[in-house]
Design a protein that fits this description.
Blueprint: H1 20-43, H2 54-83, H3 91-115, H4 118-143, H5 152-180, H6 189-220, H7 228-231, H8 234-248, H9 254-282, H10 291-311, H11 319-360, H12 367-370, H13 373-393, H14 400-430
Helix pairs in contact: 1-2, 1-3, 1-14, 2-3, 2-11, 3-4, 4-5, 5-6, 6-8, 6-11, 8-9, 9-10, 10-11, 10-13, 11-13, 11-14, 13-14
Length: 443
């Protein structure tokens, strides 16, 4: 396969979307994560006894749909025109509809799991599938456009992540239909659930994190560019391995050996990305670790730990799948999302304040002043402590409530930190001739 272009470092702001488009997604995400943690704290240990309980499923979907997918969709609507020069048609209107459907659909789906209500499952299916299909359709139309030179690796990864999202949606729709119309059709629910989780976490979330890392890590974290063997056909091979693992599941004889081989190759591929990212972060140009770097180190360490726990489980216990899920969802995906938010939101706020400078005549605050680093560091500390406690709770369910309470506090602190950037922007936009009061923080 011909390798694609190495990711570019420069961004194109020729026709960027309005700030309100990504911010509505970015500000909603921490609230859904806090709600998921709050429900876990309320329900306590029973929610961690098995991954099949309705409470666990409700909490999981609040996190993966309401927080992770919410952030990733907002990031894509912002990054496609800026990184690749690709314009999503009617981006502002599409974003508003997708955001409304995702918010309402996620809440209804959580209630459907909690109440075991077929009617609510039908409503959730209509909202979520409708909103996500609109988003995928708009991105598909956009992907036919010419992309900027140097963005080939990022665009290729995004295309594969969107394909994985379509498969995740299809599998999720099949599962939801079994709950929406019970007894109408018999489906292998456990196998479909495993495939749904695999394509959602390793395909949609995993491939998108990889694609964005190709741009974000060198630009915002000042690492060296990713090596050619990762920015070439790597994402394509990972997607093909996901397909091979999916199709070979349940085979016997040599088919079982093929399935095991593909699964270990897939795990090795993600371990390669995690280890390479940690290597680049350890040798980045800025020696002091800022909150984004700490979050990404946590994300990569969690990814490697999840792979190790899956490959070499300590005991045949129901706690192991839960622990792997915690490491992938809260450790890998959520940590990577939080790290990106601490770079993307201040940068976008600073950039749009620069645009207002023509009318206000005032110099905007620096990026480090928009969200003070010490606030982000305290929030990261709460997140890291909550993650460790949540992982321990998989083996000692009595720790579920304190772990969830700490994670809830960390998510609310993230929302407050992001809200500070929004307040600064609104203050400057609504009162352009007044002094913008930004406290000075020593970094």
């Amino acid at each position: 396969m011909k390798p694609v272009d190495a990711p570019q470092r420069a961004l194109s702001f020729g026709d960027h979307p309005p700030l309100s488009l990504p911010l509505r997604f970015f500000l909603s995400a921490p609230l859904f994560a806090a709600l998921a943690a709050g429900l876990l704290a309320w329900h306590g240990a029973p929610a961690l006894l098995t991954r099949w309980s309705p409470q666990t499923l409700a909490v999981t979907h609040l996190l993966v749909l309401g927080c992770l997918s919410m952030t990733m969709i907002g990031a894509l609507l912002q990054l496609l025109p800026v990184v690749a020069g690709i314009q999503v048609p009617r981006a502002a209107r599409v974003g508003a509809v997708v955001h409304a459907c995702l918010c309402a659909g996620t809440l209804v789906l959580a209630c459907a799991f909690w109440q075991d209500s077929p009617a609510l499952f039908r409503v959730a299916m209509a909202l979520l599938l409708g909103g996500l299909l609109l988003f995928v359709g708009a991105c598909t139309v956009a992907m036919w456009q010419y992309h900027l030179p140097g963005s080939g690796a990022v665009v290729a990864g995004i295309r594969l992540a969107l394909a994985a999202l379509v498969l995740t949606m299809t599998l999720g729709g099949m599962l939801a239909s079994a709950f929406a119309w019970p007894g109408l059709i018999q489906l292998p629910l456990q196998r479909l659930t495993d495939l749904h989780a695999m394509w959602g976490m390793l395909g949609w979330a995993g491939l998108l994190v990889i694609a964005i890392a190709f741009q974000v890590a060198p630009m915002f974290m000042l690492t060296a560019p990713y090596p050619r063997h990762l920015t070439g056909a790597y994402a394509t091979w990972m997607f093909l391995l996901l397909g091979a693992v999916s199709l070979s599941g349940g085979w016997s004889g040599r088919g079982a050996l093929l399935h095991t081989t593909c699964a270990f190759l897939l795990a090795a591929g993600y371990a390669l990305f995690g280890a390479t990212t940690l290597h680049l972060l350890a040798r980045r140009k800025r020696p002091r670790a800022d909150p984004t770097t700490l979050y990404w180190c946590t994300a990569m360490a969690s990814l490697l730990a999840a792979i190790g726990l899956w490959a070499w489980p300590s005991a045949a216990s129901g706690a192991t799948p839960l622990a792997v899920g915690v490491l992938l969802v809260a450790g890998f995906a959520l940590s990577a999302v939080c790290g990106m938010l601490y770079k993307i939101v201040p940068f976008l706020t600073w950039y749009h304040l620069q645009q207002l400078r023509e009318t206000s005549g005032r110099k905007p605050p620096s990026i480090s002043q928009i969200i003070p680093e010490r606030h982000a560091q305290w929030q990261f500390g709460a997140h890291a402590a909550g993650l460790l406690l949540l992982l321990a709770a998989c083996y000692q369910p009595a720790l579920a409530r304190p772990a969830a309470a700490l994670m809830c506090a960390a998510c609310l602190a993230l929302w407050l930190n992001l809200g500070r950037a929004v307040r600064l922007y609104r203050q400057s936009r609504n009162a352009p001739n007044q002094h913008l009061s930004v406290p000075h923080y020593h970094e």
